[in-house]
Every structure is written in structure tokens, then in C-alpha cells.
């Protein structure tokens, strides 16, 4: 009996010891500084990089804030470092708490650094740190990342980690920005065939510098806003080739890139406007959505490779200032369909031409399907997609089917109402 008692006590001691070992390195929340955003800029000294930390206070805005109501929601610190991984230790010279990347969700890179020939070296340093997840958003700022982070002051969401999460997710839903993260950046860069599209953001430019544009033909920083709101804008894409930024796409071009990519599903809320065929003073509001996957026909064995792309598109007309009852007037409906197909095809062909002449390859992921046209890897490598793409003959065909015409499809005659 005594031996049995000793064995039971021994087992309990061992069990408690095993349970406690999992908590030996645990750190309390109030002893940690949570980095939600990292900004990267070129440093004045060659071989160094300017690192900016956006540190959030997780207790602000939560029900457990208690007596910490007077604490600020965030803190910003910036400094030069010779190595990306040791930057956390340098930051602790002024930050008392242990710096952690547990809720890091955005990497902000200045355009100046992204266009630098050595940028890819700094990016691969980020992969060495185990705490930097590859699913964090990859964002390019048109100004310095430090200036951007300092000036970002959203009014409705004081918690910075929630602000970036919400505005980026909404931008992806509308397809005005690409769904870009570190994993896609490294994957496309290492494949060495396609362009990578990163989220583009900027502070609003001076009103006098802005040119009047329509709808989604903007890039970040060029939209006119008035009132009291954040100065930051998310629209358009930064274009990367072989790991280095080489240009930009507007919000409209980003949307067309989304539609022409076979790997992308349906966008949930792609709204835009088109001029009315008989009166371009007014514009129609429409919702665009892929009905099904694009159809691709490739002939890559000829001297001049050729690609034919068919995009099945569903269009819902939501508003019409001329009050035309399209479901009732079949002739007007067919005229509108042909007009929209021609307009979208023309814009997409201009985008393809831009990628051929300016970038030398595509952001549509077409190389993945081109590989299937070759029997061996050697044949594919000899074809050299980046070398062949600029000279390809590429034809775009848009096949439109109309969906519902808003909540009230049939409208009264405008002239009848005026009379």
C-alpha cells in the first residue's frame, strides 16, 4: 500500500512537471510590444535599411482596457539597421517591452526601395525570421514608409491592426487592389516567368496636382477627397518583375488583370460605370462578374506564338440616367451589349500591350497554362516565356450576358414624365 502511494505521488509530480514546462517562456500581454506593421525605406548609408515599427496597444478599444484608458492606441519608432533580423534588439534600446511579431499583418515598402536593384536581398532577409509569417500583406507606399505610417490617422478605427485588415480586405473584394502577400511574392519571383502585383497605397496628393479622372482609372494618392478622414488611399498595383518594382497599374487595370487570371474566382463587388452609347455625357452603373473560367487557346509552336482568350462576363446594369427600359427594348439591349464588349475588349488589349511593351511579361498567370503545351521541361525553358511574350499575338474576346437590371428593370419614359 505504501509503495502504491509513492508511485501515485511520483506520477502526479511528473505530470505537473510536464504541464509546467510548456509555460516556462511565457510572457504576459502587458509585457510585450505588438508590432502590427513594419515599414522599410532606403537608408542614407549603403548597406543599411531604415526600419519603422508600427506598434499597437492591444488593450485600447477592448473591454479589458481597465485602467489603461489614457494609453495611446499606437506608437511609431524608426531607425537604421544593418540587418533586418537584429532590428528588434535595436528597438529595445527605447522600447521597454519585448517586441513581438505575433499579430504582424502588413509589410510596407517605399517605392524608392522597391525599385532598388538590391531590394530582393532585403526581402529574403525577412524569410530568415521565423516570426514573420508569409501570409502577411505586402504593400508598396509611393512615399517613404516612415512618412506614410506617421501620417496615417484613420478616424473610425483607432486600432491600427484592424484598420489595415479591414481596408485591405475590402479593397480585395472590390478588386481595386490585388490579393498580395509575401508568399505570392516569393513564389512568383522564384518561378521567373510572371509579374507579381502588390497592393499600392499612398497619402493623398495636393488638390492642385490632381487631374480629373473617372471611376477606377486612378492609382493611390490621386483621388479627390474632402472632409475629415484618413489621408491614405488604397487603389491600384505596384508591378514587380524578378523581385524588383518596374511600374504601376491603375485600379481599372488591376481589375482587368484579376478578370484575365484563370486562377482567380468571382469578385464579389466589382462596380464601375460606362458611357452611354448615344449620350456619353451620362454614364451607366454596372456590376461585372466572371460567369465561369476564361477560355484560352494557345498556339506556341509557330514562329509568332498566338494566344486567344475568351472572357465570359456577366453584367448587371444598376442605373441608367436616360431611363431606357433595356429588358423591354431588345434593339437597344443588343446595341448596349456590343458597345460594352467592344469597350472592355479595347481596354484589355491596351493592358496586354502595356505588359508586352513596358514590362516584357504578364501578370495574368498565363505561363502556368503555357507549360502544358510542351512535353518536356527542356522545351519549356528553350521557349523562354519572358523572351517570347512581348512578340506574341494576343486576342481578347469578351462574351457578355446580362443579369438583372437593378431592382426596377422596367422604367417609365423620361419624356412622358416631363410632359
- Counting DSSP E segments of at least 2 residues, the number of strands comes to 14
Report on the biggest sheet. 9 strands, mixed
Query: Could you say which overall geometry the principal axes of the C-alpha atoms support?
Result: globular
* Content of β-strand: 25-35%
Task: Briefly note the structural class of the backbone.
Answer: alpha/beta
Measured as a percent range, the helix fraction is 25-40%
Using only C-alpha atoms, the radius of gyration works out to: 27 Å
Integer average pLDDT: 81
Number of domains: 2
Characteristic terms for this protein:
GMP Synthetase, Chain A, domain 3; five-stranded mixed β-sheet; 2 domains; alpha/beta; 13 helices; 419 residues
Structure description:
This protein has 419 residues and is α/β, with parallel strands linked by helices. It has 2 domains: 28-252, no CATH class; 260-419, GMP Synthetase, Chain A, domain 3, CATH 3.30.300. Helix content is 30%, strand content 27%.
Topology:
Layout: H1 2-21, E1 32-42, E2 49-56, E3 74-81, H2 87-91, E4 98-100, E5 106-110, H3 111-114, H4 119-126, E6 137-141, H5 145-151, H6 160-173, H7 182-191, E7 196-203, E8 232-241, E9 244-249, H8 251-259, E10 270-276, E11 279-290, E12 295-299, E13 306-319, H9 330-359, H10 367-370, H11 377-383, H12 385-388, E14 393-402, H13 414-418
